[in-house]
Amino acid sequence: MPVSPPCDTLHTIRxxxxxxxxxxREFWLAVxxxxxxxxxxxxxxxxxxxxxxxxxxxxxxxxxxxxxxNLAAEELGMDHREEAIRIAPVIIASKNVFAFLLxxxxxxx
Length: 109
Prior knowledge:
- The chain has four helices and five strands, in the order E-H-E-H-H-E-E-E-H.
- The protein has helices spanning about 15-25, 35-45, 50-55, 95-105, and strands at about 10-15, 25-30, 60-65, 70, 85-90.
- It has a five-stranded mixed β-sheet.
- Strand 3 (about 60-65) and strand 4 form a beta hairpin.
- The longest helix has 12 residues, at about 95-105.
- About 15% of the residues are buried.
- The model has no long low-confidence stretch (mean pLDDT about 85).
């Protein structure tokens, strides 16, 4: 994975959904890539790394954006200094999740 050069300016990192509600919605960090931002948040926020690592058990995965562009896994280490880095939870599509949501809407669960 390519290593980004050191960054000396602060960049906006935004967390959405349950991540933002649990750990805070906006951060300014001296990072140049999404992977560097996630590593920094793992260090700065107690429980953040564990929360990410156990999210799949709760039916969640994450989408990472640079500006409005959804990043692929291989792009996380690339330089994204011009845009805010946004991390948003996404429900993992499965029959159980859809059944649960349907029951919630119907008021059964």
